[in-house]
Amino acid sequence: MTARIRTDLDAIPAYVPGRNFPGAIKLASNETTQGPLPSVQAKILEAAAGVNRYPDILATELVAALASELKVAPENVAAGNGSVALCQEVVQITCGPGDEVVFAWRSFEAYPIITRVAGATPVQVPLDANHVHDLDAMLAAITDRTRVVFVCNPNNPSGTVVRRSKLEHFLDAVPAHVLVVLDEAYFEYARENPEGDYTDGVELARGRRNVLVLRTFSKAYGLAGLRVGYAVGDPSIITALGKVRIAFAVNSIAQQAALASLASKDELLARTDALVAERERVRNALIGYGYDVAHSDANFVFLPLGDRSGAFAEGSAEAGILLRAYGNDGVRITIGDPHENDAFLNYAATAAL
Ligand code: PMP
Question: pTM of this prediction?
Answer without folding.
Answer: 0.97
